[in-house]
Write a structure and sequence with these properties.
About 30% of the residues are buried. Strand 13 and strand 14 form a beta hairpin. Helix content is about 60%, strand content about 15%. The strands form 4 sheets. A 6-stranded mixed β-sheet has the order 8-11-12-6-13-14, sandwiched between helices. It has a 4-stranded mixed β-sheet with strand order 3-7-4-5, with helices on one face. It has 3 domains: about 190 residues; about 120 residues; about 170 residues, Rossmann fold (3-Layer(aba) Sandwich), CATH 3.40.50.300. It is α/β, with parallel strands linked by helices and about 600 residues long. It contains 17 helices and 14 strands. The site of adenosine-5'-triphosphate has 11 residues, from helix 12. This is Putative ATP-binding cassette transporter. Keywords: ATP-binding, Membrane, Nucleotide-binding, Transmembrane, Transmembrane helix, Transport.
Length: about 600
């Protein structure tokens, strides 16, 4: 049964995680968000942060000036004073110009900060995800779903400033701006607000600033109700992201295996599986939709009420001659602004909910990266003279602890050629992974000679995107080798017909047959000239003649190279001098009499 990790995220097959405590959630979010401000880019980061912070005061100042302007404007109308209209219009244009300049500058800084922050986080996560083979380990154990989406999309959504998603910093800045503006408008309202008078137990009580209190109460009640209405929406959003990601990875899986699915006549089955996966998206979308409708309804009632409620509250004072028409209109604007700023939470509830789910998913990735268990199998360097590879007390386990095969002590001498034989599933490929340091489950030790240059060739070769030359030279850069030697190699491995195409950029992994890919592997080996070569069924797709040619090329070109190869075909035993036989969870070694094979 998969267990929840520290973040509460569980392995994908169990679905959504139980909710985290809000304290832990805030701590994790803080850790993720704060790193950039102490990174090498800290000067720009702080410059942008401080500038954006002060811009919030600038925005509040502009809102204040607009409010004062409204008051003057409506007073001029009440007094029918036409001569003041032109000067007021000029002031209005000035305020508007200031506002436009501020918005543009703020957007520019926001955008630059967003991409630099994202760059920092993306590099950090790529480093940590790929360091010490964590990315392969996460896939091998299927710890979390879609780490790619978390790095590409969730980090973008957290740091974003422009576009459809409003990022975390943007929301924080708007909250600060709202607070500053709320204080400013509370001061304006205080100017004209009559006190609230009532008697308590015979004592007359007077609280100054009635309108301010009404606006604050209005915003708090609105925020509370929206928070309540919004809770199911957040849960539905988190579910939606998981399901969207599953649907997308299903599509990618079908695309990658298109030919195999067609050959198996399984198009209808796969189509149905995709439909089911999309059904999960579709059904949950209803919850997202109904949740967002609830929030939208709450938001629009809140907005509408905010425009008339202050008039009903202040009109009695106006009728009693306690304020001018301009003050009434400016008071209504101030009430609306105060309510809007205090109630930013109302409007931003969806955004905060989305951010919480992005942070949670990134935290899940963090846990998966940091969740590295101590390796049971130690891999090191240093062997006795004449030994190129050795194991000591090596036992291989399955990922969840069950024993797979007991290898014990095994020494491979310089120049020896070992065949690893045994039934399917006995653990031959797992031993090779352990030798390469990619299988930590088990106990014992693997050591390699200090000066050895090892190369591991799996059954299915990895061909990077790009030219055929890049695929042959990999992991070297293509420029490291000249075209003529690559063409000669292609001839040597019986792929001479591709020699004119080495600069063609194509999907070589899809285009070349498995047997051709195994001959590309041979070309790579001849180019790299390793001192220790480990082959895992590297000729499984070749016909008998080409498989023999493969080993004969190795024998001729790399006579000193030590070779360990997993084989199923006894006809290839003649190219080896020892074999390691896997049977019943153990191994035994024996010498091969090459004269009789
Ligand atoms: N990532 C993994 N997660 C869980 N089990 C695994 C994983 N990789 C391998 N195994 C299991 O370990 C066992 C040994 O697999 P391995 O690939 O080493 O066998 P093999 O001897 O190379 O087989 P074959 O000859 O068919 O290639 C198998 O039962 C396999 O299911």
């Amino acid at each position: 049964m998969p267990q929840p990790s520290q973040s509460g995220e569980v392995r994908r097959e169990t679905g959504l995680a139980p909710p985290q405590s809000s304290q832990a959630r805030w701590r994790d979010a803080w850790q993720l968000a704060s790193g950039y401000w102490t990174s090498p880019d800290w000067k720009f980061a702080w410059f942008a942060l401080i500038t954006l912070f002060f811009f919030q005061f600038g925005t509040a100042f502009i809102l204040l000036r607009t409010n004062q302007w409204q008051r003057q404007f409506f007073d001029v109308i009440e007094q029918r004073n036409a001569s003041q209209l032109v000067p007021l219009m000029i002031v209005f244009l000035g305020i508007m110009a200031m506002q436009v300049v501020m918005i543009l500058t703020e957007n520019l800084i926001d955008g630059l900060l967003s991409i630099r922050w994202r760059t920092y986080l993306t590099r950090d996560y790529l480093d940590r995800w790929m360091r010490r083979n964590r990315y392969a380990e996460i896939e091998r154990l299927r710890i979390i779903d879609n780490p790619d989406q978390r790095i590409a999309e969730d980090l973008n959504n957290i740091t974003s400033a422009v576009g459809t998603t409003v990022g975390a910093l943007h929301i924080v800045m708007r909250l600060i701006g709202s607070l500053v503006a709320a204080v400013t408008f509370a001061m304006i309202l205080l100017e004209t607000a009559p006190p609230i008078r009532f008697s308590l137990g015979g004592t007359a009580i007077s609280i100054p600033g009635s309108t301010v209190w009404y606006a604050a109460a209005y915003a708090l009640v609105g925020s509370y109700l929206t928070a309540k209405i919004g809770q199911p929406f957040i849960r539905a959003m988190m579910r939606q992201q998981h399901r969207e990601a599953d649907f997308r990875s299903g599509l990618i899986h079908v695309r990658r295996n298109a030919a195999q699915i067609g050959l198996a006549g399984a198009v209808a089955t796969e189509r149905q599986a995709l439909e089911q996966s999309f059904d999960a998206v579709r059904l949950n979308f209803r919850s997202v939709l109904y949740g967002s409708l609830g929030i939208t309804a709450a938001g629009s009632v809140y907005d509408r009420m905010g425009t008339v409620l202050p008039l009903f509250i202040m009109v009695p004072t106006y009728f009693a001659g306690g304020m001018s028409f301009g003050q009434l209109m400016a008071g209504r604007d101030a009430f609306g602004q105060l309510g809007m700023q205090l109630g930013y939470f109302v409007k931003s509830y969806q955004l905060i909910g989305q951010q919480v789910s992005y942070f949670n998913r990134i935290k899940g990735l963090d846990d998966a990266i940091d969740d590295a268990r101590p390796a049971g199998i130690a891999v090191g360097v240093g062997t006795p003279p004449g030994v190129v590879l050795m194991t000591e007390g090596l036992a291989l386990h399955r990922p969840h602890g069950a024993a797979l095969v007991e290898v014990g002590d095994w020494w491979v001498g310089v120049g020896e050629r070992w065949a690893l034989c045994g039934p399917s599933g006995a653990g031959k490929s797992t031993l090779i992974r352990a030798l390469a340091g990619l299988w930590p489950d088990g106990r014992g030790r693997v050591a390699m000679a200090q000066d050895s240059r090892a190369m591991v060739v799996p059954q299915r070769l990895y061909l990077p995107l790009g030219t055929l030359k890049a695929a042959i030279c990999f992991p070297d850069r293509p420029e490291a080798h000249d075209d003529a030697s690559i063409a000669a190699l292609l001839n040597q491995v019986r792929l001479g017909h591709l020699a004119d195409d080495i600069h063609g950029v194509r999907l070589w992994q899809e285009e070349l047959s498995p047997g051709e890919q195994q001959r590309i592997a041979l070309a790579r080996i001849l180019l790299q000239r390793p001192t220790l070569l480990v082959l895992d069924e590297a000729t499984s797709a070749l016909d008998g003649d080409n498989a023999r040619h493969f080993y004969e090329c190795l024998g001729a070109a790399l006579p000193q190279t030590t070779i360990i190869s997993v084989i199923h075909d006894d006809a290839l035993l003649r190219y080896h001098d020892h074999r390691l036989i896997f049977a019943d969870g153990r191994v035994r070694s024996e010498a091969i009499d090459t004269a009789t094979t």
